[in-house]
Amino acid sequence: MSPSLGILRVSRGTCLVHSARRGTLGLVLASRGVRPVSSCPDHHYDVVISGGGLVGFAAACSLGQSQRLSDRKILLLEGAPNKPWQLPGEFSNRVCALNARTRTFFRKLGVWEHIEQLRAQPIRRMQVWESCSEAMITFDGQDQEDGALAHIVENDVTLHAIKKQIPEHVEVEYNAKVESCQVPKDSSSRVMLSLADGRTISTDLLIGADGAKSLVRRSMGVQHLAWDYDQMGIVATLQLSEAVDNTMAWQRFLPTGPVALLPLSDDHSSLVWSTTRQQATHLLALSDEDFTEALNRVIWEDNESDARVKSIHQAWLRLLETVVPGESKDIRQLPPSVARVLPATRGTFPLGLGHAVHYVGPRVALIGDAAHRVHPLAGQGVNLGFGDVAALTRCLDNAVLLGEHLGDEEALHQYEKEQQRYNVATMASIDGLYRLYNTTAAPLVLLRSLGLSAVNVMSPLKDKYRRHIKAWTMTDDHSQIRDYKAGLALRHLVV
């Protein structure tokens, strides 16, 4: 080879990739790609996000706004078409309860101000009770800066606000379906993607945001633990009987699953009703009037209550009042009455749990439903996904600062460690609640009723429970870097 001419001789099955930004030449083995051995990828990107949706677009927004990643080529592949959108007059039946963790993240990205300009309804108080007894617990947002436990926001509103904040240098391709992806066994090779239109793309880091049936996850070959709850979730938009200060969320646990009313405005709420597949089929077949009547019955009636359990529970409440007389007693508030379900707003979706044993591999990371799926009873599904995005962004920022390449598996493990520690605990709590309330056996009904009332009356227990549900500690960059360096040093010493 002649250095003056800069000519490289390459073997068959390899292609030469030039990076103008770095001014370097690198050899990329293409023999394991999705095209014939002798072909080269049509395009190369530093980061490719496979899958749009709320979490995928949030990743494009967050990574695109990162100063340390500002010179990196980022591509988002969205399989759906790009449809024009404007705020409709009627509420959508697809909503999310964005918690304080997500709102903090969105404020940093400039997304939250767009959401507030469109529409978002705060939840300042929440009342949870069960149909088999009078046990209940209430929460409020007094420990939050804005006094809200969460905000109910339509998915389309959130998505529109996120898209407005994606920097121009981030490329977004619609109608871009990934047919296959070749994940390397180590970080020495790049990920190769094959698109439905025949193009091939290579990337230093592939982020799988492609949902519960993730192609990226399957291509990684990681173990995925999953099961169905044999339940369906029913969603709808409701009009209340009268306009009120509708800032309270209501959730009642039934033997067939929880039913929740989430505020949208003074006279509208969103319904999330989890029930058996058989009952869901029956409810969907009802007329709007009959469905409204059935909904009001499960919110108001006490047909499922057990007289023995209620009697023991009342004695327990009197004992608690004696033990902790100084504690304020929550007054049970009556839920609103539903006047009607808005036409054509009812829909269903299957319920289940899923979790990838590993979120990362060489040059690959999973976020959102591709990594985990939970029951909607706590409204944490998409919030966990947004938490993934925030943690992965911090991880990549730190990797660049320390001179690591974006797909380095050791660097990506910091993201996996942080998020699995939080996500697994949250998922276990949600699954445990589902199983605890998915029975009418009198002994278990009694135990859960006594426990719920005790937590509600005793402030220290209640505060601890609330912190467990909402906790999310945002560490600063310096501590993240320090922990990362310590982890690297420890691994090198072990090796």
TrEMBL record:
InterPro entries: FAD-bd, FAD/NAD-bd_sf, Ubi_Hdrlase_CS, UbiH/COQ6, UbiH/COQ6_monooxygenase, UbQ_mOase_COQ6. One of its GO terms (cellular component) is extrinsic component of mitochondrial inner membrane. FAD-dependent monooxygenase required for two non-consecutive steps during ubiquinone biosynthesis. Required for the C5-ring hydroxylation during ubiquinone biosynthesis by catalyzing the hydroxylation of 4-hydroxy-3-(all-trans-polyprenyl)benzoic acid to 3,4-dihydroxy-5-(all-trans-polyprenyl)benzoic acid. Also acts downstream of coq4, for the C1-hydroxylation during ubiquinone biosynthesis by catalyzing the hydroxylation of 2-methoxy-6-(all-trans-polyprenyl)phenol to 2-methoxy-6-(all-trans-polyprenyl)benzene-1,4-diol. It comes from Chionoecetes opilio (Atlantic snow crab). It is found in: Mitochondrion inner membrane. Its main location: mitochondrion. Belongs to the UbiH/COQ6 family. This is Ubiquinone biosynthesis monooxygenase COQ6, mitochondrial.
